[in-house]
Design brief:
The chain is mainly alpha-helical and 144 residues long. It has one domain (2-140). 72% of the residues lie in helices and 6% in strands. The chain has a two-stranded antiparallel ribbon. The chain is elongated, with a radius of gyration of 17 Å.
Length: 144
């Protein structure tokens, strides 16, 4: 799921810190806005916009963090609104609902652990690419 790749250069201390902070921003927003899935994405977008003109290493990791938050938002939003519809309507809890909630819980736990791991490694200047998001980030984020 996570691979360590060689980057074209060794990032400086300041770059590594900013890249690591892009992942930490999503973690802090996740903890602060747990019941509302959009808060994680908004915090990550703000951090991305503030660093989009930075070095390639920083931009790349801000973009990867942002892409992962889009997926988390989509999955958590479905679970959130499904739960709201069960609470406020005649809908009942089904096996599909329970399966989906278990799936997003596992997904969120894995994403949380991967984010912590990536934040630690990028802080040391190590380039980490996530499965799917790394390739997509490389397509989107080009060196100048």
């Amino acid at each position: 799921m996570i691979t360590t790749q060689e980057f074209s250069y060794i990032p400086g201390e300041h770059e590594a810190e900013k890249a690591s902070n892009s992942y930490l921003m999503s973690l802090l927003a996740f903890i602060a806005g747990l019941p509302f899935p959009i808060i994680n994405l908004i915090a990550t977008i703000i951090f991305y916009l503030g660093n989009r003109k930075d070095t390639f290493f920083v931009r790349w990791h801000c973009t990867q963090a942002l892409l992962s938050q889009f997926t988390v938002l989509m999955m958590n939003s479905v679970g959130f609104w499904w739960t709201i519809s069960i609470i406020f309507s005649d809908e009942v809890i089904t096996r599909k609902y329970i399966s989906y909630i278990i799936t997003i819980l596992i997904f969120n736990i894995v994403e949380f652990i991967a984010t912590i791991y990536t934040a630690i490694k990028t802080r040391k200047g190590i380039h980490i690419e996530w499965w799917f998001y790394g390739d997509l980030t490389t397509l989107i984020c080009k060196p100048r």
